[in-house]
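PROTEIN DESIGN WORKSHEET
SECTION A - STRUCTURE
LENGTH: 101
TOKENS:
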């Protein structure tokens, strides 16, 4: 997977395929609400597994029944890359499996 910064247009195109995700400054961000703290914690563990598989890690915040992520690629100066988009896609699929909205 290419690790080069995406243009603003490329980011917008990819975000159109990721409902709920947005660009906040130089990071892709998303928050999920779950049914309980336990469900939110289970999603965090699942996200951690995805991050390990990709060797790409987001800022990940666990609230009572919420999970928030913010990600960019530090190795290219903190820009958004396809690696961030792939992480977002995989997290989105995992979140759906945990009943997040």
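SECTION B - SEQUENCE
RESIDUE ASSIGNMENT:
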């Amino acid at each position: 997977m290419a690790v080069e910064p995406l243009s603003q247009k490329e980011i917008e195109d990819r975000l159109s395929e990721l409902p709920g995700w947005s660009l906040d400054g130089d990071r892709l961000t998303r928050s999920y609400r779950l049914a309980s703290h336990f469900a939110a914690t289970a999603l965090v563990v699942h996200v951690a597994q995805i991050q390990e598989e990709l060797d790409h890690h987001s800022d990940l915040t666990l609230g009572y029944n919420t999970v928030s992520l913010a990600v960019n690629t530090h190795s290219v100066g903190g820009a958004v890359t396809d690696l961030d988009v792939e992480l977002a896609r995989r997290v989105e699929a995992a979140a759906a499996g945990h009943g997040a909205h």
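SECTION C - NOTES
The chain is about 40% helix and 20% strand.
Residues 37-54 form the longest helix (18 residues).
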